[in-house]
Amino acid sequence: MKKAIFFLTISCCLTLIQTANACTGITLKSKNNDVVVARTIDWSGTEMNNIYTIVPRDHTQTSLLPDGTSGGLTFSALYGYVGMAVQQPEFVVDGTNEAGLSAALFYFPNYGEYKPYNEADQDISLADFQVVSWILSRFSSIDQVKAAINDVRIINIDPSASTVHWRITEPSGRQVVLEIVDGVPNFYENEIGVLTNSPNYPWQLTNLNNYVNLHPGGVQPTKFGPITLRAFGSGSGFLGLPGDFTPPSRFVRAAFLKTYSLEQSNAYDTMQQAFHILNNFDVPLGAQFAVGAAPNNMPSATQWTVATDLTNRMIYYHTMYNRTIRSINMGNIDFATVPFQYHPLDTTKQQTIIPATIDTK
Question: What is the CATH number of the domain that holds 336?
């Protein structure tokens, strides 16, 4: 019975995750080459159990399998890490380890395909929602991940669920996207520093060419027969920038906004800039459903946003309930002695509001 309840919980979790089709990620550098990776987490079906987890060195995990048991790949942590997880601490969707390597999961429906689960490969089978934990536990560089990827068999816990893809970033700013198509892992150097969902990463880059006319700033007046056409206001150079919430449109919008954002002097200011850019990608819940069909009334489909300063090992986040930025300083954690633990992102689901000062005299 316990196993059946656990498997039902996992299946329900994966069903909910299939509505998470609006996550947006960006990467920024400061003038002194500090690197900040940031992203939104979007689930519109229901409120998730959103937590952060602290994983010490030598912590051992075993991958879940399609039958609901923990009988897959077993791996121990060479590196401690902090992860942002959903539903349960095993499902880390964004995190950074003490070596500064960052990994993140993004939904990737209809375009990825894993090899079918084979019981003969049980010992090397790794659930896709535990790949981030595996990467952060075991590796300090992208090349190490690439060398080891064929030693594991990445699988769906629920074969009916769709696939995901991953963003992996080094402290230097080098970043790759990992996508598994037709059972084959593909790594793409992500020089643009943007990731959303489907279609695949090369298609998203090609699609940017459809917006070759866009540029920052304004458009000068132009003669149009007997009249002169003029821009209504500032920012007319971005006229035509897509504003909907589909993954291709979000990719284009994120690419242009981050590319033309002003480079900040340090990591702290760059972190704040990342939050400002990602404000453009908050998804109002009603936007993803037909009128009257929204299944709940959460504050937002964007449940939380995280920005990580890889240079200084600082993690910052805010949530749909409280947009006050909170921080986790990895430099204060001794990963050799800290116990494994996890905590809710919100201890109180209420916005912090500070009354303004008013002089009544």
Answer: 3.60.60.10
